[in-house]
Amino acid sequence: MADIFEKLVKNSGPLGQHRERAHGYFAFPKLEGDIGSRMKFRGKEMIVWSLNNYLGLANHPEVRKVDADASVKYGLALPMGARMMSGNSTYHEQLEAELATFEHKEDAILMNYGYQGIMSAIDAICGRHDVIVYDAESHACIIDGLRLHPGHRYVFKHNDVEDCEKQLQRASQLIEKQKAGGILVITEGVFGMAGDQGKLKEICDLKKKYDFRILVDDAHGFGTLGETGAGAGEAQNCQDEIDLYFSTFAKSMASIGAFLAGPKVIVDFIRYNIRSQIFAKSLPMPIVLGNLKRLELLQTEPQLKEKLWENARKLQNGLKERGFDIGKTDSPVTPVYMKGGVEEATAMVMDLRENYGIFCSIVVYPVIPKGHIIYRLIPTAVHTDDDINRTLEAFSETKAKLDAGAYKVEAIPDMAESR
Ligand SMILES: Cc1ncc(COP(=O)(O)O)c(C=O)c1O
């Protein structure tokens, strides 16, 4: 019999295989200093484009004060236990009520992490006769939620409403045959890699022809889209047709935790049946109070969202004017598509960091097809014109070098920190 660890030692996985050269630099880098558009990386100042601190709340003085005061007053332990047992508080309930109102829903439930929360919500909602119809580019947490689902699932081509309808037809036929079950459509408000909004309005319009409920993961749209910042549903004028609205606090709220909002009776069912919350300690008080403050600022300081969009437009228009392909983004998420191998991409990222002081994330094979590189830039309300202009210059210069073959290297540069 094999030692179960043997294969893990032999094969470190598609990304892990690079860890000897990459750890601490291309993977698991340590950004230091206050969260903002300039931070330190390995002792050097960088213009940072890889934090989802969309509204700049991470370092907002009022947020920092509430986080600090609540930590002093309550510590991290309170309340102890799961919400259902001993971990409930008035503040948890207040945050749920305020989130529900903000999202124009009857009720909301807090979750400790978005990833576990949405997985577990899918598990709680769907029984074995139910059918899930979902977008092909759904986030890993949705895919893992599907793995928990004992029934059928049909995938539709990314943001392809016609294909979504085809899958709804298949799902409806199956349910008719089974004489049991219902349909849950799952998609996203904004797809975090390419920045394109899910076609929520058009998918919701399919309700006129098919019976289904829809769950939207709006991790990147919450706080950044819609007139009040209520997200992609508000932006597309279909918030009322979204049955279950989900967002994490890890992006525009610059915090941790998540929530799911919807009809009271359904949220109450989830509250009493969601395993990731029933069997886990509730969010600590400083997190809840910090999130209440963030939600307040999201509503009382609309200039933060305006500034985010001003910066996003400057960055995106600047890239387009310089001939870069930024795809179909209609959110602040700014992908820059280029051609090249994994090694070239890492050499270019190193040049950007070491010689231009630009820190951004790259996405390469196997996350995307071989020969393609995506640089992913996240503008925030706290970036400055100087940050944007320096970055545009750096991208033009490094792209010219990439095209001239200057980054063709045999292997990923060895930048690992000693471990
Ligand atoms: C679309 C989407 N859903 C869910 C999550 C997971 O949220 P959390 O970080 O709160 O676990 C993320 C990533 O943070 C995300 O991008």
Main sheet overview: 7 strands, mixed
Shape: globular
Q: Between the first and last Cα atoms, what is the distance in angstroms? A: 32 Å
Order of strands, widest sheet: 4-10-9-8-7-5-6
Any idea what the CATH superfamily of the largest domain is called? Answer: Type I PLP-dependent aspartate aminotransferase-like (Major domain)
Highest CATH level, the class of the largest domain? Alpha Beta
Q: Mean pLDDT score, rounded?
A: 96
Task: Outline the fold blueprint.
Layout: H1 6-10, H2 19-22, E1 31-32, E2 38-41, E3 44-48, H3 61-74, H4 90-102, E4 107-111, H5 114-125, E5 131-135, H6 140-147, E6 153-156, H7 161-178, E7 183-188, H8 200-205, E8 213-217, H9 232-235, E9 244-248, E10 258-262, H10 264-273, H11 275-278, H12 285-300, H13 302-321, E11 334-339, H14 342-356, E12 358-359, E13 361-363, E14 372-377, H15 385-403
Parallel strand pairs: 3-12, 5-6, 5-7, 7-8, 8-9
Antiparallel strand pairs: 1-2, 2-3, 4-10, 9-10, 11-14, 13-14
Helix pairs in contact: 3-12, 4-12, 5-6, 13-15, 14-15
This protein binds pyridoxal-5'-phosphate.
Can you walk me through this structure?
The protein contains 15 helices and 14 strands. The protein is of the alpha/beta class and about 425 residues long. The chain folds into two domains: about 5-55 and about 300-405, Alpha-Beta Complex (Aspartate Aminotransferase, domain 1), CATH 3.90.1150; about 60-300, 3-Layer(aba) Sandwich (Aspartate Aminotransferase, domain 2). The strands form three sheets. The chain has a seven-stranded mixed β-sheet, sandwiched between helices. Strands 1-2-3-12 form a four-stranded mixed β-sheet. Strand 13 and strand 14 (about 370-375) form a beta hairpin. The longest helix is centred in the last third of the chain and has 20 residues, at about 300-320. The protein is globular and about 60 Å long. Bound molecules: pyridoxal-5'-phosphate.
